[in-house]
Amino acid sequence: NSTMSYFDTTLIVSTSNALSMLRALDALGPDPAGWTQPRTERTGSGNLLLGTGMLHPQLISWVWLWMPRCLRTGPTGVIRAYKTRLTAPENLKGGDRFVIRIKEGVYEETVRAGFYKTNLVFLGDGMGKTVITGSISTGITRITTYNTATVGILGDGFMASGLTIENTAGPDAHQAVAFRSDSDFSYIENCEFLGNQDTIYVHSLRQLFKSCRIEGNVDFIFGNAAAIFQDCTILVRPRQVKPEKGETNAIAAHGRTDPAQTTGFAFLGCLINGTDDYMKLYHSKPSKHKNYLGRPWKMYSRTVYINCTMESLIAPEGWLPWSGDFALSTLYYGEFGNSGPGANVSSRVPWSRLVPEEHVSTYYVENFLQGDEWITTAS
Q1: Domain named Pectinesterase catalytic: which ranges (predicted)?
Q2: Each residue's pLDDT tens digit, 203-238
Q3: Active-site residue among 156, 182, 184, 219?
Q4: Which of 198, 258, 276, 372 is flagged as catalytic?
Q5: Could you give the domains of the chain?
Q6: Alpha carbon 161 to chain centroid distance?
């Protein structure tokens, strides 16, 4: 709880204020009397200063890691010693990474990596083979959403591959996070995240998820990070105890609180669908089961879907209000080049947008995350 309070009342607010002042100084000059709020995509081309140039859409093929240190774990072994926090070296620099090789097995754990546990790598044997599982939810007295995570990462430079991370709290358990990250320069590929409400909490900073599988129902990708989901499979799960009654689900709930924050969610080349069990329910009574691309958790929520495949479960309106007209004039929800039966934009809500073609590259890894500065690529 103290960590969460520190983020929300100190770091995030202070950083947002500083960003707003710097942008105003650069754009409007040194006299504060003439400063105004930053422009956003809704008012022009503001908040696109995340990089420059039209960059190649083939973003990442694979990541090369220098792995000088490695710890192996087995299903009856070492990870259980990390019930509270990982005992890895602190403040690793540059390309020096601490690799935890997690063998095939099911690990019933609550894993925490603190601020100083930087450059950690979790390397599993594959989705569905190496499974880290928990079941904490806000249904437990005095547990916050932030603290329900099965795996929670704070240290920068976190990487993971070949894992399933899940929260098995049922669909009636309210918020129950599988994975939470505040790690800057975070790269995760070929991982599976399973939950119901609030599966992935991308709380802050820059994060890239590639070729991952994410399942949930209510706001199951949420937070205020600058996060890209590339070539991922996003699946809606059955939600309630009596699913035949129907439900309303939103995939993304982005939490940008200040127009100066260069945060948002970008879904690039993803498949948007439901699990087999959910699609049976959906096809039985399509009018009872409503699914949306996102809804505004905070005032300046920003989410885009680019070159994604959207199946029939996505409602024609596309996007869902949070409450009344909250944030509808300040959010930015955009789509470009999507396909499939759920991608028809003719009936979209009037407060969503088509991303202009000249702005699409803004949401590529090189620009949105400055990925060319911290991700080593190879052809």
Answers
A1: 94-372
A2: 999 999 999 999 999 999 999 999 999 999 999 999
A3: 219
A4: 198
A5: 68-373 (2.160.20.10)
A6: 16
